[in-house]
C-alpha cells in the first residue's frame, strides 16, 4: 500500500476537526449570502404530490462555469417553469434551450432534462438520494454534483470538492502540487469526507464553498476575517515562517512529497497564501474561423425578417439556432472565404448566390472554453421569395424580437 501522506497535509486530530466545523458553521450561519436556491432547500424534502425538482441540482448545474449573479435570474425562471421532475421531463429540448440561451455550455441544460426524464420513466419518479446512486444513474451528474445534491437536499454526510473547495483545502494544508492531478484530487476528496460535519453536512459543504467564494478568494484572500485561519497552514506560514533554505520535516522533504510544491517552484514569499493552489498551465484555446451570413427579407407586414437554421443535435451548441454559417480553413484569402459562404448559401436556397453580393459587416470574436472563435459576418438582402430545401437542417424566418426569444447562443446575439 502507498505510504500515507505526511501529517501536515492531513486533518488527523479529531479535536481540530471538531473546532474547524464549529467555527466554519458559526460563520456560515452569520454571514451566508441570501441565494434563492438556499431558501428552497428545506422545501425539497418530504413534500406530498409530484416529486419536486431539487433546487440544489438545478443551481449546481447552472453554477458550473457560471457566476452566481448571472445564474440567479435563469434559476428563478427555470424553477417557475418546471418546479417538478414530471414537468421538466415533459419539456422539449427546444424549450430548454430557449430558457438556457445565453448561459453557455448548453449540454448542461439538455442533460438536466434527460436526467429528469430518466427519473420519471425508469426510476418511477423517485429521485436517487445517495451520492453514489446519483452519480451512477443520472446523466450530467458527476461526483461533485452528486455530493452536493445528496448532502444539501437529502442530508447524506458526504463531502464535495469544487474549485472553491480545492483552493480552501490546498491553503489549509499547504498542498502545492498540481491541483488538477489525480493524486491531489483524490487526497482532497478524502479530506472533504473527513471534514464534513455529520449532523449538518449540507450546510458544512455550502459553508466551505461560500468561504472560497467570498473570503478565501483566488487573488487577495481576506485572511484577517477568515473563521478558520487558526487551522490554516498557509496563513501560519505566511505569518511566522520563511521557507527554510533546505527542506526540513515541516516541508516533508520537498521533491519527494506528492502533495508539496515541486522543488523547482518552491514557496514564493511575495505570493503569501496564494502560493496555493497551483495548477499545470492550461492548453491555449484552438483558433477557429467561421463565415456567417445574416440573410434578410421583408416579412408580410414589411418588417425585416432573418433566416436562422438549427445546428446538429450533438456537438458544440447542439440544437441551438444560428445564422447560416460555414467553418473556414485558416489563412484563406478574403475572396475565397466569401466564395465558400456563397456556395454554402446556394445549397440552402437552391438558387445561385453571387459572392460579390455578400456585404462584409465585420468580425465577431467569441471565446468558448476551449475555442477562440472568429465569426466573419456578412449580410445579404433578398428581394424575391426563397424556398428553402426541406432536406437540409430545420430553418425559419424570424423577426428581431423572435430572434432574441429563440434558442440562440450569446455568440449569435453578438453577430
Ligand atoms: Fe484562505 Fe486565508 Fe482563510 Fe487560509 S486563512 S483559509 S488562506 S482565507
Automatic annotation (TrEMBL):
* EC number per UniProt: 3.2.2.31
- Membrane-crossing residues? none
Q: Where in the cell is it found?
A: Mitochondrion; Nucleus
One cellular component (GO) term of this entry: mitochondrion
Q: Could you tell me what reaction this enzyme catalyses?
A: Hydrolyzes free adenine bases from 7,8-dihydro-8-oxoguanine:adenine mismatched double-stranded DNA, leaving an apurinic site
Reply yes or no: does the keyword Chaperone apply: no
UniProt cross-references to InterPro entries, sorted A to Z: DNA_glycosylase (IPR011257), Endonuclease-III-like_CS2 (IPR004036), Endonuclease3_FeS-loop_motif (IPR003651), Endouclease-III_FeS-bd_BS (IPR004035), HhH-GPD_domain (IPR003265), HhH_base_excis_C (IPR023170), HhH_motif (IPR000445), MIG/MutY (IPR044298)
Q: Report the main location listed first in the record.
A: mitochondrion
Q: Where is the HhH-GPD domain?
A: 62-214
According to its UniProt record, what is one Pfam family this protein matches? EndIII_4Fe-2S
Top-level EC class = hydrolase
The UniProt entry, under PROSITE patterns, shows:
ENDONUCLEASE_III_1, ENDONUCLEASE_III_2
Q: Name one process (GO BP) from the record.
A: mismatch repair
Q: Name one GO molecular function term.
A: oxidized purine DNA binding
Give the co-factor note: Binds 1 [4Fe-4S] cluster.
Q: Which UniProt keywords apply?
A: 4Fe-4S, DNA damage, DNA repair, Glycosidase, Hydrolase, Iron, Iron-sulfur, Metal-binding, Mitochondrion, Nucleus
Cofactor(s) recorded in Swiss-Prot or TrEMBL: [4Fe-4S] cluster
Question: Does the keyword field hold tRNA-binding?
Answer: no
Function of this protein?
Involved in oxidative DNA damage repair. Initiates repair of A*oxoG to C*G by removing the inappropriately paired adenine base from the DNA backbone. Possesses both adenine and 2-OH-A DNA glycosylase activities.
Assigned protein family: Belongs to the Nth/MutY family.
Return the protein name: Adenine DNA glycosylase
Q: Please report the organism this UniProt entry assigns to the protein.
A: Melospiza melodia
- Source organism lineage? Eukaryota, Metazoa, Chordata, Craniata, Vertebrata
